[in-house]
Amino acid sequence: MAPLPDEFLLPLYFDLGATLLFGLSGALLAARRGYDPVGLFMVALATGVGGGLLRDGLFLQQGPPMCVQDGRYLLAVLIASVLGYFFAAGLDRIRGLLFTVDALGLGTYAVVGAQKSLALGLGLGAAIFIGVINAVGGGLLRDVLVREEPFLFKPGEYYALVAGAGATLFCALVVSGQWPASRAAVLVIAVTFVLRVVSHRLGWTTPPARTGPHPQVPPR
């Protein structure tokens, strides 16, 4: 894979702010379930930095994940945990803000994961896959921790599909179209944000698998 013609650099303030708000969404879920401070922090941590942990620790393996290299990420999760523990009832009203940041983060982190994969010389399929994991991994880990069936496996709103579309579009633009990565990233983030918001407003959902009647198993 040829080197990327440019690099998209995620602003640190956005990354930390998104980590805090993602962590807060996990903390609010844990608070509604009545978790203690340790359990609430672990759910907030998984939701806030889970995508990056999976990307760096499991797939790319380029050393310690960023969230442990820079203590500000853990501080953001800690702040989210304190807010969720003490002020959960009052913070439920910011669901609209959490949805907006989540919609922005979906395309942003799909781009970041895909770009890091392409820069390491991975193929397009791997780059798209890791981009999706980077975007939705926090929610996946959150559901596993709270013992819920992961939302990615169930019929529901366009979420992983939007992340996959964003990662695919980014790879197509920078590899086939030779767009600068920063320019492609802006377009992809805008497209995925609009697609996520529109699909949510219009109630688009993914269909369940359709199966016929179960075959009768003859007795032994």
Explain the overall architecture.
- The model has no long low-confidence stretch (mean pLDDT 90).
- Helix content is 71%, strand content 0%.
- 41% of the residues are buried.
- It has 220 residues and is mostly helical.
- The longest helix is centred in the middle third of the chain and has 25 residues, at 95-119.
- The chain is globular and about 50 Å long.
- The chain has helices spanning 12-32, 37-60, 66-69, 71-91, 95-119, 124-145, 160-176, 181-202.
- The protein is built from eight helices and no strands.
- The chain has one domain (12-202).
Helix and strand topology:
Blueprint: H1 12-32, H2 37-60, H3 66-69, H4 71-91, H5 95-119, H6 124-145, H7 160-176, H8 181-202
Proportion of strand residues = under 5%
Shape descriptor? globular
Question: How far apart are the first and last residues' alpha carbons, in Å?
Answer: 55 Å
Number of helices: 8
Query: Rounded to an integer, what's the Rg over CA atoms?
Result: 19 Å
Portion in helices = over 70%
Number of domains: 1
- Uncertain parts: none
Mean pLDDT, as a whole number?
Answer: 90
The arrangement of helices and strands along the chain is HHHHHHHH
Helix and strand content put the structural class at: mainly alpha
Biggest sheet statistics: none
For the secondary structure, the number of strands is 0
